UniProtKB/TrEMBL annotation:
Organism field: Flavobacterium phragmitis
Keyword tRNA-binding: no
Protein name listed in UniProt: DUF2157 domain-containing protein
Membrane-spanning intervals of the chain: 48-73, 79-100, 112-128, 134-149, 154-172, 178-197, 209-234, 254-271, 280-301, 307-324
Stretch list, region Disordered: 364-388
Length: 388
């Protein structure tokens, strides 16, 4: 199903590892260049600004092709309008395939055609169904997951997650007020199931080709799970979707559950991330804790903002100080020591030796001068001279 050559994908993984080792100081710049020279990889672009530039350039190319087709088909008037987006989507699919055959991957040009194809599928279905949101979201989700599976396009996985979420929401809206009331609970259950499915798929991966996309979907589930039953989100959506007004002295139904959920879930995330050493979940837990505090303060401002910020800063300082004191001497597990992949001098020579032996390189090693100097000696002498 993957359009790319598996050997090229393996080479890309090795090149990325070499780049990571170089940034961490494990190998030299010459060794990194040697790896890239010996292992041809894709035409990709790591610089985000340059990639955005190529995306804009690809979008202009895509638009010019679609414009040229429209000049020919505009004479058909309404009939062409009904099918034009299908044609534009076909152009996106064809362009994605051509660029993939030329080894463009995460370059910018391929982004324009892949995302353009997904977008035009949504427009085409919208025109055909007179803007039926559920069907549009469903077809965009199917197209996005196809693009990810075939082209390993990470943004397509993000589009898939968003489209599936939108599809679920609009499906629940079709059940009327009942669907809107139970939407937070349905979303919570759906996301939990989706999270464990992605976890299972990650654990069963034989190759790392799909790892990044599954990790993105897994992280998306963590965020959406928290948002689905956050008190502020639920209350504001209740007022917007159901037209209810929460008067002073009253609250939304199941308010106690949503209050508890808003504070318990971030703490569970934090504990689980520390237990499993999951850095992404750790950052999500920090953001969730901050948003939980903002949620309560949005409705119940107990202290003036300057006092709250001062006390919050003092609490964070105390937590940081005592955490550093406790963890700074630990060498493994949860530690305050620098990440070896970013800062390492102690195993630099060992890592370089491993890379050198792997790729057949023979780096020159200069030994340190011995503090003991040996004198003269002849043919087989051990350093003894002719004088006493």
């Amino acid at each position: 199903m993957i359009v790319y050559d598996k050997k090229m994908l393996d080479n890309q993984i090795l090149v990325d590892e070499a780049d990571t080792l170089y940034k961490g100081g494990f190998i030299s710049k010459d060794q990194k260049k040697f790896v890239k020279k010996e292992l041809p990889a894709f035409r990709s672009q790591d610089n985000i600004l340059v990639r955005i530039g190529f995306l804009l350039l690809g979008s202009m190319l895509y638009s010019s092709i679609c414009g040229a087709i429209s000049i020919i088909g505009v004479s058909a008037e309404n009939a062409y309008f009904q099918i034009c987006c299908y044609i534009f989507a076909a152009v996106g699919f064809a362009g994605s395939e051509i660029l993939a055959k030329q080894n463009f991957h995460n370059h910018g040009l391929d982004d324009a055609f892949i995302l353009g194809a997904i977008l035009n599928v949504g427009f085409a279905i919208g025109i055909t169904t007179d803007g039926y949101q559920s069907v549009i979201a469903l077809f965009m989700a199917v197209t996005a997951i196809f693009m990810y599976i075939r082209y390993l396009h990470l943004l397509s996985m993000l589009v898939f997650c968003l489209a599936v979420t939108v599809f679920l929401f609009f499906q629940m809206f079709e059940f009327g007020d009942i669907g809107r009331v139970i939407l937070p609970f349905i979303a919570m259950i759906f996301v939990a199931v989706f999270y464990f499915v992605t976890q299972k798929l990650i654990s069963k991966l034989n190759k790392n080709y799909y790892y990044s996309g599954l990790l993105l979907a897994n992280s998306f589930c963590l965020v959406l799970f928290y948002i689905s039953c956050n008190y502020m989100i639920v209350r504001e959506l209740s007022e917007e979707l159901l037209g209810t007004e929460v008067k002073p002295g009253t609250d939304i139904p199941f308010a106690f559950f949503f209050y508890a959920f808003t504070f318990v879930v971030p703490i569970v995330y934090l504990i689980q991330s520390l237990r499993t050493k999951d850095r992404i979940m750790l950052w999500i837990s920090f953001l969730a804790i901050g948003f939980s505090i903002y949620t309560i303060r949005f409705y119940y401002a107990v202290l003036p903002i300057e006092v709250a910020l001062t006390l919050g800063g003092l609490v964070l300082f105390a937590i940081a100080y005592f955490s550093i004191k406790k963890l700074k001497e630990k060498e493994s597990g949860l530690t305050f020591k620098p990440d070896r992949i970013n800062h390492s001098d102690s195993i630099l020579n060992a890592e370089a030796l491993v890379v050198a032996s792997t790729f057949g390189m023979k780096p020159e090693v200069k030994s340190q001068d011995s503090p003991m100097e040996f004198g003269g000696g002849g043919f087989s002498g051990g350093g003894s001279g002719e004088s006493f």
